[in-house]
Amino acid sequence: MKNWQLAILSGTLFGLSFIHIGLGFLVFFAFVPYLIFIKNSSPKHSFFNGLIFGFVVASITLYCMVLVEIIAFVGILIILPFYNAIVSYIIKKIQLRFTKFYLYLFPILWIGFEYFMTLGPLNFPWLNVGYSLANYYYLIQFADVFGICGLSLLILIINVIIYNFFQNRKKSLIFLILIFIFWFGYGIFMDETIHLEKKNLKIGILQLNIPQNEKWSSSVEKIVKKYEEQTAILTSKDTLDIVVFPESAITTYLLHTKRYRRRISTLAKENRINIVTGFPDFQRNPKKFGQKYLRFNSATMIDSLGFFFPKYDKIRLVPFGERIPLLSTFPILEKLQFGQANFEYGKNFQLYQVNDFQFSITICFESAFSELNRKNVQNGADFILNLTNDAWYGRTAFPKEHANMNRIRAIENRVSIFRAANTGISLVANPKGEILTKTEIYKNENISEFLFTTNLKNTFFGKFGFILPIFCFWIGLFIAIYSVIFGRLFTKKL
């Protein structure tokens, strides 16, 4: 096969493994064609083949972004393949400088790249290799050691071993068997040794299934009334401590609208329930220049006495969809309007308490950020509520991709996660990553479940966080600089 065909094949295998159609195992072979085209290409051609690889992956896994905003989809189709092209160029340079060792450096370099994707305004850690295994229960238990990047590392090592096997290095098969024995063994051990404890705290989730084209066009009165009715129905059937509404459930500036603020407060008091809901919010811009108001994607808790607690503002925003990257550095970008929200970044973590338990809120895309969720737990959260609205994406693979990230977050920190999605998939994941209950997509369905905790006080990942990917990032950066810059100087001297 030609190198560009290998790039297409590699991107296709990875893309198909990622979208949760029962082909997750393909990820163990996905990077074998990638390593072949890196070996056979020049640095220049590695760049373009990396571009092809990234374009194919993004097209298969993120095509549904076109349903959100065209600018978001175009931005992703430009940036992600470009990132892959640069990484492929660097890997080729390293392969030329470290011919005997580069295969063993490859997993380190890729994990460093995954960490890089969590940084800055273009942060988009959606395509971490480890998510391909989200439905492989025993294998994902290892996420409590090094997080999602630990899963990615093992997958990439296996790809290198399989590549070596096809290069007539048959002894490498022994290492493959040993890795799987260790990996499955760890998963079985953790499954048997972690003890779940059912707590006297029950949480209900409302999924009203409001289509995106109706969500913001329908009257606020109509939507609030639906939540009032469904809350009353759910609490009449079950004894609950918390009822969770999804992201932007109340489609008005709730904190600034006395009428609806009073309605939600009354709803909580009449049903003797704590309500957690999402809503848009704003505040005056303290600066004399720029836009008059700053807007936020927010959520808060209203207790059973009707009291509104301090709100949580979403910290991680979707690039291009929720905010144009580098807007703070180049305010002129504000004049570019493609339908994006241009929210402001939240700055503070919030903890809420019901009975003897504390919890944090994450909103939508934030379920993709291991470190953000880890910080919530280290700050004292006993469980996490994830509020989202996946109505944008229709009946694509995206809602499944998004929902399954919560399984990894639950295992990384060994806490329960309750996910409320407007049109699905709403779910409850226990600290082992088991899905206790979930809804179907595009169904008006409410669910409830008790809180489960574990006998573990902390996990290795919880204590040390991204120690592995940070190490890989700096090692990879050093090797890349040496190979690309100093390697060129050394060659010229010769």
In short, what is this structure?
By secondary structure, the protein is of the alpha/beta class.
How does this model look, in words?
With 494 residues, the protein is of the alpha/beta class. It has two domains: 3-193 and 468-493; 197-454, Carbon-nitrogen hydrolase (Nitrilase/N-carbamoyl-D-aminoacid amidohydrolase, 4-Layer Sandwich), CATH 3.60.110.10. The chain has 16 helices and twelve strands. The strands form two sheets. Strands 5-4-3-2-1-12 form a six-stranded mixed β-sheet. Strands 6-7-8-9-10-11 form a six-stranded mixed β-sheet, covered by helices on one side. The longest helix is centred in the first third of the chain and has 28 residues, at 70-97.
Structural class: alpha/beta
**Low-pLDDT ranges:** 489-494
**What is the overall number of helices?**
16
Number of domains: 2
Percent of residues in helices: 40-55%
CATH architecture of the largest domain: 4-Layer Sandwich
Whole-angstrom Rg? 24 Å
Tell me the quaternary state: single chain
Report strand order across the widest sheet. Answer: 5-4-3-2-1-12
Report the span from N to C terminus: 35 Å
What is the CATH fold-level name of the largest domain?
Nitrilase/N-carbamoyl-D-aminoacid amidohydrolase
- Largest beta-sheet details: 6 strands, mixed
Average pLDDT confidence is 91
Q: How are helices and strands ordered from N to C?
A: HHHHHHHHHEHHEHEEEEEHEHEEEEHH
CATH homologous group name of the largest domain: Carbon-nitrogen hydrolase
Mass-distribution shape: globular
User: What's the CATH class label of the largest domain?
Assistant: Alpha Beta
How many strand elements? 12
How much of the sequence lies in strands comes to 15-25%
